[in-house]
Structure formats: C-alpha cells, structure tokens
Amino acid sequence: MTDTASATEAPKKTTLTVTIDGTPIEANPGELLIAAAERTGTYIPRFCWHPRMSEVGMCRMCLVEVSGPRGMSLQPACMQPVADGMVVDTKSSTVKKAQDGVLEFLLVNHPLDCPVCDKGGECPLQDQTLTFGPGESRFVEEKRHNEKPIAISDLVLLDRERCILCDRCTRFSKEVAGDPLIHFINRGNQTEVNTFPDDPFASYFSGNVVQICPVGALTASPYRFAARPWDLDQVESTCTSCAVGCRVVVQSSGDEITRLQGVDSDPVNWGWLCDKGRFDFESVSSSSRLSAPVVRAARGAADEKVSWSVANNRIASALRSYDPSQIGFIGGARLTNEDQYAYVRLAKQVLRTDNVDAQLGDGLAADAWLGFPRATIDDLGSAGAIVLLGPDLKEELPVLFLRLRDAATAKRVPVVEFATGPTGSTPYATASVRYRPGEVAVAAKAVVAAAGGNPAERQIGGAESDVINAAGAVLAKAMAAGRKIVVVLGRGSMAEQSASFVEAALSLRDASSGTVVLSAMRRANLHGALDMGMAPGLLPGRVTQAEGAAWYAAHWGTTPTSVGLDTMGMLAAAAAGAIKVLVLLGADPLADCPDHALAEAALAKVDFLVAIDTLPNASNAHADVILPAAGFAEKSGTTTNLEGRVTALSSKVSAAGTARPDWMIASELALILGVDFGYELVGDITADIAAVVPTHAGVTPDALGRSANADGIVVPVVAVVPESMPDAPADGAEASDEPVVPQVALPRPIRVRSTEGVVPVPDSYSLRLITSRVLYDLGSIVQASPSLAKLARPATVRLHSGEIERHAMHPGDLVRVVSQHGELTLPMEADDQLPRGVAFIAWNTAASGANMLINDAELAADGTTKVRLESGRNA
Amino acid sequence: MPAPTKMISTRWDQADGHTLDGYLRTGGYEALRKALAMAPEAVVDEVKAANLAGRGGAGFPCGTKWGFLPKDVFPRYLVVNGDESEPGTYKDRILLERDPHQLIEGVLIASWAIKAEQAFIYIRGEMPHAHERMAAALNEAYAAGYIGKNICGTDWSIDVVLHWGAGAYIVGEETALIESLEGNRGMPRLKPPFFPASKGLYMQPTVVNNVETLANLPWIITNGAAAFTSFGNEKNTGTRLFAVSGHVKNPGVFEVEFGTTTFRELFYDFCGGIRDDRRVKAFIPGGGSAPWFFEEDLDTPLDAGVVGGKGSMLGSGAIVVMDETTDMVKAAWRIVKFFAKESCGKCSPCREGTNWMEKIYRRILDGEGRPEDVNLLLDVADNISPGLTWPPRQTTICPLGPSAAAGALVSSIRRFPAEYEHYIVHGRPVDGLSTGVYRPSLTSAS
What ipTM was predicted for this assembly? Predict the structure, then answer.
C-alpha cells in the first residue's frame, strides 16, 4: 500500500519533538512512532509491523495513547507518523488493557503447544504474553482446528492453528520477493494463509517467511524439531554461498550447525537470505566431507589416509622439483581473504609462479574488471538507471535481485536489461534488450547510440529497434539529469566470450562519466581473491605486477617477474605438457570450466595434481594428494563481497575430522619450502593485509570489530581512522592527514577487440548455445545439502517451440545436442520466451554438462558456441 | 397523520419507472442539462446550500465531503457505495431496482461537480435484480448519449463502471469497498493516512457517496437548494428513506420528511402499528450496528442529532421493531453472530473477539451459561470498544467489531439483565417469550 522505504529512509535534518511517557525525544519527520520509540529506548510490542515492509496495522498490539484534537486516543504506533508536540503514553491503564485484550484475543484460537513448538523459547507471542499479557485466558470454548502442518513448499510447513494472521509472510511474498504465491483465504475467524491448489510457495526466498513469522506457524523442514532455542549457541558471520555477502547469525547445537538467520545489514541484505544461503549449511556436516589427508600411489589407485606431515611433505617435494612456470594454482574464490593472501604469497612470493587464477574461465578477465569504477548495492536505489549486463540475478545472486527489485519497484529506478531470454529481472525492466548470443556488445553500442540521438532503425545484434530505442531513452534521461548509471556486470552465458560483456560495459562507461559498475560475479569471495592478487599479472591491492613490484619486493622479498597464465591458459599448457603441477583450491574444473574436454586432458596429463577442498568432486577424484580444508563456519577470517565490502567470518563448529583452514595449509607448505610467514592466528594475516595491501590499509581486526563498522568496510579505504578514534566510520568521508600507503596507480582496463561485424557462419550448427547458472544445480555444496539437493531440476535443453517443430520433434523428446566438440543427450523443453535460433542449457545440471559442448579456442575466435540438434536416442 | 413526502421515491409505483422512456417522460435528465449549464463550482455550492447529509450512515454533509478533494489533482473518481448490507437496510436496493436512471443522473451531476471523468457503481453481491436493472439502465444511458464522450453537447466525457460485489458486509465500509474495487480482499484501510479524498481508489482523490445521497441531486438541481431546505428542519434537510422491518403490521421503505417525523408516527401511521397490537419492547433505530431504543423513545423525532444525543444513531435508516414477546438474549445473539460472520479478519480484536462473544452467547442459549458470563461478555466487548460508549471507540481499524460490542450486546444486557440471568440459572428463556425459529447450537457461526 505504501512505499516500503518510508520507514527506513534516511531522515532529514530537522527533527520534531515527541513526548513519550513523559520524556521528550527527538524524532525525524515521517518517522513512524513505533520506530522513533524503539530508537529512543521504548519498546512498543508488535506482531505485524516489520521495518522492511509496508505497515498494515492489523494485529493491534502496538496500540498506544496518542494526543489528538479530541484528547488522548488509542492509535496503532506502527501507522502513526510522528508529529511535533505529539504526546504519547505507552503505559497507561487504557493501553495496558488494550494490550491485555489483544493478547487474550490472539491466544483465543492459538494452541498452547509451546512445549512441542519449534518457536517456543524465541516466540514473540510467548514473550509478549509474558511481558504484556494477562496471566490466564478466560476462553473456555473449543479452539479452531486445522490439519497440522501442511507443506506449502518443499522447504516450508504451515501450521494454520498457530497462525495469528499478521500478514508478514504474505506481505513478504508479494512486496519483497515478488512471488505472490501465499495469500489469505476465507474470511473473519476462518481466515487462513494458504497457497492456491497445485501452486506451491516455490520461491527462492521462502525461508525468510519462517524467520519473520512471529509464532510457530511457519517452520522450515531442515530445522523442524532439530533443536530448542535455549540450547543454541550463535555467532554473527557472513554467508558465503554467493558474492552478495549477506550478514547472518550461525546457530549451532552440540557442535553442529542447526540454522542460519539473516541479520539486517542496511547496505546489504536487509535481513533477507535466499534459500540456498539459508539451508546449504547442511553440507558442512555432510557425511561426504573430506576429513583426512589422502594420497594416491597412482591415478585411480585406492585412497590412502595419511598424516598431515606426510601429505604436506609430499606436496612440498613435488613443488620443489619443478620450475615455477610449470606450477599452477586454480581456484580459491570461495576462501577467506586470509586464505587467499597466504596462497598468493605461497605462489607468487615463495614459488615465484604467476600461474594463479581464482576464476575458472567462467567469469571476466580480472584486469579488465578491476579497471571499472565500482558501485555499491545502495547505488541501485539512487541511480538514474540500472543496466543489467550479465547473468540472471535471481538465479545467481538472489538477494542482490531483491535489492534490484526494490530499486525498480519501490524506488522506481528504470532498468535496462540485456538478455538472450527471459530472466527473473525481466518483469521489472523498462526495456529488455534481447540480443543474439555473442552480440551483446553490438546491442549495447546500438543502445548507447540511441541514447546519443542516433536511434536504431532496424534490428541490431538480434534486438528489436524499438526496444533499443526505449533503452536508449532511459539512459539518455539519466545522463541528462546527471544521474549515476549502475551497470551490473557479469558473464551472461558461458557459451559466449567473456570479452563481449566487458566490451559492452566499456561502451556504456564511455557514454557517461556517471557510469559505475556493480559486479555480478557469483563466487563468494571472488572479489577478495582479485583484491588479494589471485589472478595472473596482479598483486594484492588491485595493482599490476609491474606497478606493485617494488612495493612487494620490499615486503616479500621476491615476486614473479613475468605474467602467468589464467585458468584456461593453464589447462591448455597442462594438456600440452608445459605445466606439470596443478593445485586445485576448492575448484572443480571438470564441472566449471567452459571446455570440458580441455579440463579433462589437462588433469589427465599433469604429473602431480593436488586438491585442497571440503567435498569430493569430479576433478579432485583425479588428485594425487587431497588435503581436507575447513569450510564455512569452521574457520574465521574476512570475506569481500561484490561491492568490495570486507566483513568478518566467524567459526562456530569444529572442522570435519582433521581438516585445517587454508591459510594454515599455505603457511605450512611455505614453511616446509623455507619461508616462515609468521602467522599463528588468522588475525595475524588480517593485520598483515591491513599493513601491506594498499587498498586494505586500516582494515584491521580491531577496525572490523568496531560497532560503527558492523556492516563491514568497503575497500579501497579512502581514509584511515586513527586508532585514537574508536567507533568512527572507517569507510566514511573523513580524510586522514597521514598517508599510510604509497600512491599506487590502479591498472587501466584493457580494451578488448570488438565483436562487431562477426557474422555467424551459416553452417549446419544453426543454434547458438546459451548456458548460465541456476540456483540449485549439481554443485557439490547444493548436492551435499539434502534439503536443497532435491530442488535441483533435471537438465533439459530449452528451445523455442518453433525450433522443436522445425526438427519435427516434440517437447519431452530426447535430443542429441551436438557441437563440433562434443554432444549431450537431453530432453527438450519448449520455452517460447526464448528467441528462435538459440538453445539454453542450465550450467552444471547434468553429470555431463553444457561445458562438454564448449571449446575455449573456438569461443575466443568466434565469440559463441554453436550447436545443432539430432533426433533420437543414440540414433 | 403526516402526509407522505415524495422527492426520490416518485417512480417506485410507476411500472416503467426503471426504463429510460419512463424516466424521460417524468422529467428525467433535465437536471443533468441544467447542471451542465452551470459551472461545477456552482453545483457544489448548490449542494452545500442544500445541506444534504450523507444517507449511508455517518450523515456527513455531501457538499463538504466534495470540498475535501485536493485542488488540481487528477484523475479523481466518484465511487457509488451500493453495497447496502447493514442488517435491516434495504432502501438503496429499491432505488437501484425501481429508479436506476435517477441514480445515474445523480452520479453524472456529482461527477460534473467534482470534475471526475470516471465513476464506479459498486452493487452488493446479494442484489442481482438491482445489478440487472442498473446494467440495463447504464446501457440505455450510454446509447442515448447521457454517458460517454462529450455528453449533452459539452466537451466533458464520463464513463460509469458497474461493479458487482462478491457479498461481504465489510465492503460497505468505504475504504474496504475501494480495496475490493481494486481487486483486492475487501479489508478496510486505516484512516489516516488513507482518507479517500486524498488517497482513495488507485491512490487518487476519490469521493465515495451513498446511493440515496446521489439520488437526491436531480431534485436539488431542478428545484434549488432553497426548496430542498424547506423540507425537514435546520440540520436535517429534505426527506429520508426509512426501511422498517420486524414486528410491524406493514413493513417497508417509507420516504418521510427528515427530522420532524417521530418513530411513533412511522410505526403506527406509516406501518399500521405493531403486530397483534402488542407493545413495543425495543427497536433498532439505525441498523444492526446501532444501540437499541425502547418504548419510552417512541416520540423521539427521526432527527440524526437528537437520536445521536440519546446514545444511538439513525445510521442508514434501518429500523427493526421488536415486540414484547421477543427474546432479547437471542435477538442480541443473532446480531452478534452477524458481525462474527462478517468480520473481515484483519484486526485481531474484531476477528477473535466477535467470534468469542458469539460462542459465549451460544453457550448461554444452550443452557450452559455461567454466572460470570455476562461480565465476561461485557469485558470482551470492552476490549474491542473501550468504554462501550456510543459512538464507539475502537481498538480496530473500522467500526465493525466495535458495533458488535457496543450495540445490541450492551443495550440488551443493560436493559434486560434478568433475561440473561434467567437463561443462566434456568437454562431457558423467560416464560412467554417466543422461542424463535433457530436453535443456536445448530447454527454455528464457525
């Protein structure tokens, strides 16, 4: 009904005076009484009000006496904006009676099954009844009865008897998630929350309704009957399922994680989590966890469990026996900043190899990416326009999608989307530019031209001219108003050349000096990895090898002298016999690299393959040595989200078996190889990064612990807070007089070649392949989380029904999808939202995935991957 | 006996009164032409001068309500509240069924006055005949050019949308009606901030007027405000329709001069007296929500201010008469049950409280009452409507629950405590009272 943001928007300077229970307080114009009271120390009880959703005034629990033209009257504090001179009584006998009355009413039909209710012990209804309610109910009749819990989705159960009809879950689904699948049905005393028949609450955000339910009506299957709240122990941490970096509390019981709850971090997740982030903690206690070092006498030989020293020495001797150029490190984008820094020192300082890449050929070139001016998530809400240039945010960065949705709906920021087919963001886009796979840069340039007064007159890059011109008009308006344009940039499809997306973003950047870029690259700490120098040619602090050589020589002694290979380069070199040792840092190139055949050849060819990981996967099955790493909630440190926001990670449970944090593994290997990093605790590394890495100056454990930095610190830090000023914002605008770091020039973005003019060769491979990620896939973490594993949909190839007809086939038929490099047999699914001429296969959803079809060399040459369909099951 | 005064019920006995032909033959749409020749502001002034009070229940002056619209905010809408569902009320239904064009003409005059270009007529779900007649009349009016583009030679265009409700009492509350019209569940919005005049239908300025209110406009424009105010008294101008039901010999809808006629005259002169010439035990002066009046109140005039001053209301003009054989406990139960069934479920006190009160009543009527139940009823009621005063204070958004609490329940308990006590002690009504048709235990509200 009202602007969601009204309760949370930054207040204006002028304040009002409101008297609450005899004490005058300063309140902000437009602030709701319930929020102003809470901010100044008076808690007004409530059930339906939630600061992140519109107010409805339904439960009536927040009734307080408010002065008005006709004297004091009972008003709901959640719907009462403050007014100057307002007098409020929250404790009068009238208020007390009203609160008693409302609680008694709510309990009339609420079962008193607290002893067996999951909410018991942390239940707002229970707590407020104790604090504000009557001692006994006078209700002697039969209570309302409903079937005990009904599943409203695969993860969420609803016990309608316990529901107090506060409208929080239904409001969330409609206002926040945009999945209006749960509703009130029936009327009056028979009102209940329910789904439409055969239309379950299948939302990626369903777990949030469980968290915001003020009673035990909604429960999530992973936590149901798992623990009692008073037995839970908790720490605050950051979710590492993707790069949004949602703040969470991790709760455990008996050294096992039982639940994650979202924490309201204003610049990031507003308290929300996606279901993958909320429930994939199940993988931490998975029985398939790697729990002891393993060596294998030969490829395919049986696992031999060994001690850490045996395994480490074996790795060290292998590393010692090769030239630095013959060693490569792949992966590490899910590790902590400290782990990454330690690995970078191991590789670049100790081993002096620059063959280090946190990405798996499925992202964007690091040096190109780091050159863009960066945006924060909050910029979405204040931008003049948002351009989506990358993957489907709802599938890859779900909570970023929520923030995008809020910007587009509540804040009315126009959105231009570049996509090859429909995405979760399409309903919120002013213009959805549907380019032909491989031609995103062509389409982007056409939009920029239209914004500059040269409208398209025909289809360009597969996109319709009216859509291009509509998108251009959105950008032109933002530019004319001098507003920011936020480009959300990532890899839209692994079957397209990554350079096309960078090229498209560069054309937008060149069009307006107000363009800032928000990353849509998904792996949890990829941005930390790039900041720590986990890419060829880079050193920690977003500096190039050349620019940082002197600085790091001073700190480390040695650095690589030539630029190394990225992952695809390393795999090609390994397959050709030039790289002999590969170290996989939580990486699965067989599943994730967009060239399965190349990865397979590389892993088979190397002399020595080391895998350091938490779970078994297809690639580490080939390893000569496997080291078990401590995973989420088993180690502390810091992580960096897609904005560059550094937040703290906390450990809560013991690591599986003898698994160790990666920084410890790296330090141990370095020590054996003769370099003592001197790290005893993870905080030593955090402090070292703060002291050495230019972008991270001042991001010390102490600074991160200050309450003013509860939402983390965005790097690069422009000003450093002196130690004498605790609790001052470290990422604020207060300039420091003392420059503590040398001025290091940031690397320039690298211009990539244009894809304009690349016309698809008319050959028998007539379909262009699109492949991008979905939230629930065959990734090892999802598959090790039973609640989520069942949500992964079987792989299909999605095609326009015209394409299916053209091949004289039918939806559901098995078809062979053939490229020049491989083939897959998959059932066909009709999707008329897709244009003709393309085939969509979700990434990593089949044991033999879409990367079987992709060839890195062809991708570099042609920009796209082309496939054809052949009928029949092994015809 | 006062002579019947007919201003808006003139065509009720005319066989073709509901058709365009019948309406035009009796001067129809002349007022519209006259209004269109006036400036909209002049029409507003005329209605203000007529001091036309809203006929939907609250009695707010129509012209003043129009004046609340913020200047220069467009589009703005007129919404006709035809969701007539207050127990005992059926006057609007007759207006819709027997003289739909009179309402349409009123809608057009009002829309012209407030500069709206779209009007909505919301008709209660349980009134199919009214819906049918109104649909036919709108088609005729469109065909004849009274509605549509550039009507009657002006450059003003207006569309009138007919919406048929799904059957919910609460939708008679104006903000719930707006929600329902928008396609949502019919649940009231909180005022403030959602005053229809500023944030109404589709969050645009909106006037919600009752059917009878608008039906008066053609007469006022034709005859002038001075002629209108010559009927009734100073604060109650014109006439009003009263729907009388219950234990009278001749129930029906009567148009009487507002403010001057008394209840006694209405019951005995218009309705032919009480059935079997019994005595009046109690009567509801203004719909199921209203606190009751008793025999000593019969000489009270049908004057909104006077009835209000005596702790009740004229409301929507629904009068229900109960003779001396009526079981007051059961009568109160029936009204409470109505509200329990019609609660929309939004506010906890109403949703749970009305249902709880109904269950307590059922227990008393079933002979399971306890001595503390009467005080329990009063305290539950007090938690929905603190103080149990009239007009009711409320712990809820709208007055539905508070009406259930502070109306019939309180009236019957205060006036007839002995009837409650008899049920509680003996498990049955006082001897001689009608047992009625319904067995409460068989007609659960839930």
Answer: 0.92
A187 Cβ under 8 Å from any chain B Cβ:
yes
Taking contacts as CB-CB distances below 8 angstroms, the residues of chain A near B166 are none
Region label for A542, one of left (φ > 0), alpha (ψ between -120 and 50) or beta (otherwise): left
Instruction: Tell me the per-residue pLDDT of A641-694, one tens digit each, with 9 for 90 and over.
Output: 999 999 999 999 999 999 999 999 999 999 999 999 999 999 999 999 999 998
pLDDT band at A10 (very low <50, low <70, confident <90, very high): low
Decide if A1 and B194 are in contact by the 8 Å CB cutoff.
yes
Chain B nearest C-alpha distance from A66 (Å): 13
Ramachandran class of A425: left when φ > 0, alpha when ψ lies in -120 to 50, beta otherwise? alpha
- Asked if A1 lies within 8 A of B341 by C-beta distance, the reply is no
Q: Quote the Cα angle for A498-A500-A505, to 5°.
A: 105
pLDDT on residue B446: 41
Q: Which of A1, A100, A184 sits opposite B185 (nearest CB)?
A: A184
- On whether any CB of chain B is under 8 Å from the CB of A451, the answer is no
Cβ separation of B356 and A141 shorter than 8 Å? yes
Q: Closest chain A residue to B346 measured between Cα atoms?
A: A58
Q: pLDDT band at A875, cuts 50/70/90?
A: very low
Q: Residue A739 above 70 pLDDT?
A: no
Tokens describing residue A345: 């020192």
Q: Which long-range contacts (CB under 8 A, 24 or more apart) does A805-812 make?
A: A807/A869, A807/A871, A808/A871, A809/A869, A809/A871
R_g of chain A computed on alpha carbons: 28
Of B192, B194, B349, the CB nearest to A102: B349
Nearest residue to A683 (alpha-carbon basis) of A368, A336, A366: A336
pTM reported for the whole predicted model: 0.90
Contact B356, A139 (CB under 8 A): yes
Q: Extract the runs of DSSP E, i.e. beta strands, from B184-342.
A: 206-210, 239-246, 252-257, 280-284, 293-294, 318-323
Mutate to test the interface with B, among A33, A49, A55, A60 (most CBs of B within 10 A): A60
